[in-house]
Specification:
RmlC-like_jellyroll; mainly beta; 3-stranded antiparallel β-sheet; RmlC_Cupin_sf; Cupin domain-containing protein; 119 residues; globular; UGlyAH_Cupin_dom; 6-stranded antiparallel β-sheet
Length: 119
């Protein structure tokens, strides 16, 4: 890869839409994927990504920064938290999540989510 790479989410390398028009993950590849996910109100992993993933819970790891909106995350072991603007989160595989409130949740994700929401 070149010594300087310039990319933009305005022209992502790939767009992965969620089921039911509930949002999308825009992906740029910098030798590893970086994603910007927009989750619309009403989005829930178990309703809008699970059909693609075909797993009981999300098995992707997410390390991210919440730009706007709020999200509730519940781990398979029962641990839970709500995240919002300015929060940085590290979420291991084995969770469900959903948007809280009527504002889209936008998150920058640099975790190991290769294949996340990929058809």
């Amino acid at each position: 890869m070149a010594g300087l790479v310039h990319k933009s989410f305005a022209a992502p390398d790939e767009v992965r839409p969620f089921e039911g028009g509930t949002g999308q993950m825009e992906v740029v590849d910098l030798g590893g994927e970086l994603g910007r996910a927009t989750f619309q109100p009403g989005w829930q992993w178990s309703k809008h990504v699970k059909p693609m993933a075909q797993t009981e819970s999300c098995q992707a790891a997410h390390t991210g920064y919440v730009v706007s909106g709020r999200m509730k995350i519940v781990m398979d072991d029962g641990q839970e938290d709500e995240i919002g603007p300015g929060d940085i989160v590290d979420v291991r595989p084995g969770h469900d999540a959903w948007v809280v409130g009527q504002e889209p949740c936008v998150m920058i994700d640099w975790g190991s989510h290769e294949g996340y929401a990929k058809r």
